[in-house]
Structure formats: C-alpha cells, structure tokens
Design brief:
147 residues; 44% strand; 6-stranded antiparallel β-sheet; alpha+beta; Aldehyde Oxidoreductase, domain 3; 4-stranded mixed β-sheet
Length: 147
C-alpha cells in the first residue's frame, strides 16, 4: 500500500508520483492533471495564485485520500496540490491512482478531484489579461477588486 499526499510550492513531478505507486499487482494506473487554463467564464486568464493554510490543507488532503481508499478500495494513491503563482498550462493538482482494475482506479481519481473541489481549503485568485484579479472558488467569483 502506498498512500501519499503533499502540498507543494514547486512544479509537480508527475514521473516521481507514477514511480512511487508502481506495483506489479496493479493493472491500471490513472493520472489526472488539473492545469491553469487560458479562459474562465469567458475571461482571458494569464495565471492563478493558489494559497492555503498549509497544515490545515495537508490534513484535509490526507483525509480525502483516506476517504478515497475507504470508498473505492484502492491501495495505491498519490495526490499533490501546488500553491503559489502558476502560469498558463502549469499543473495545479496531480492525482495518480493504481489498482488491479481500471474501474476502481477511475472511480478513486474522480472521487478525489470532486472531494478536493468541495473540501480542500485552498483558495485561488485568477489573474486576467485586463490586469484585474479575483478570488474564485468552484462555484464562481468570491470577490472582485482592483488588485
């Protein structure tokens, strides 16, 4: 069994994540990457700043991983979420799940990303091409400002 979670401030090393959960018992490995995209709600995005209270975020990410194991039966799972300022195309989250069968691996990956969106205390401030920035969550804009 290999369960790993981390909150980092550097680019996510996907190859290392894949290597960590390598096991000949697994017939399926699912990799999910969440990237900074160039448009959100019809607005041109130039980057995103992610921030969090690190210890709280780390505890909740570990809890999400444990819940995924309990819900789906996977035993090899790695989740890394990045903080700081990210540019277009950079990965903000990586989820790697391995299992003997693909259905369980896919289910665990989906479970994790949905729970992260609901529960992880990580906040993001989108930076737009017009120079404005806004704090947003999974449900839309939280605050607008001239920053």
């Amino acid at each position: 069994m290999s369960i790993r979670t981390a909150i980092v401030r550097h680019p996510i090393d996907v190859a290392a994540m894949l290597a960590e959960i390598q096991d000949s018992a697994n017939g399926a490995t699912v990799l999910f990457l969440g990237h900074v995209r160039e448009v959100n709600d019809d607005r041109a995005v130039t980057g995103i700043e992610y921030s969090a209270y690190g210890e709280m975020a780390e505890r909740e990410l570990a809890s999400i991983a444990n819940d995924a194991v309990a819900a789906t039966g996977v035993s090899d799972l790695s989740i890394v979420h990045r903080l700081g300022t990210l540019q277009l195309g950079e990965a903000s989250i990586a989820i790697v799940v391995a299992h003997a069968h693909r259905a369980e691996a896919y289910a665990a990956s989906r479970f994790v990303i949905e729970e992260v969106k609901k529960r992880l205390p990580v906040w993001k401030r989108e930076q737009y091409s017009d120079g404005t920035r806004e704090w947003v969550n999974a449900h839309g804009v939280v605050s607008r400002g001239p920053e």
